[in-house]
Design a protein that fits this description.
mainly alpha, Serine Threonine Protein Phosphatase 5, Tetratricopeptide repeat, 10 helices, about 75% helix, about 0% strand
Amino acid sequence: MKQGLHKGVGVERLGLELALAQYQLGQRTDSIATYEKIITEIPNSALSKNNLSMILVDDQASESDINKAHTYVADLEKLEEAASLDTAGWVNFRAGNIAKSIEVLEKAVSLAPNAAELHYHLGFAYAAEGGDIEMAKQHLKIAAESDQNYNGKEKAKAKLKQLTI
């Protein structure tokens, strides 16, 4: 994949596959660099911006990473697509823009009401300081009780437990 990418063959398709494989193998920095290369060559690659933004706000995120992710989400907020809106909402949450996060995540959930991970993100946004705890519990309950497996399910369960004590 790297050889094809360097030769300019199928930059987006190969790049997306390579970046995903790198991230899954624990090569976070390489994955970020690959997504950034795709975006440099294909500035309108919404999928690359989406995936890169989610990596930049993962559990290893620095403040700089979160700020960088925030630069990509303005484009994602314009899309009428649940996954992109979820990413934009989660980045806003991680950046401390709670009201904007809730607004965008509510739209994402309305487009994909059965997507447990979206409820997890929205629940965390509602649970933020000064938030609506009842709405947080409602969304976290959906996320925690879902049969779907997603990154963050255990966090959703723990946060729900914390809020119901």
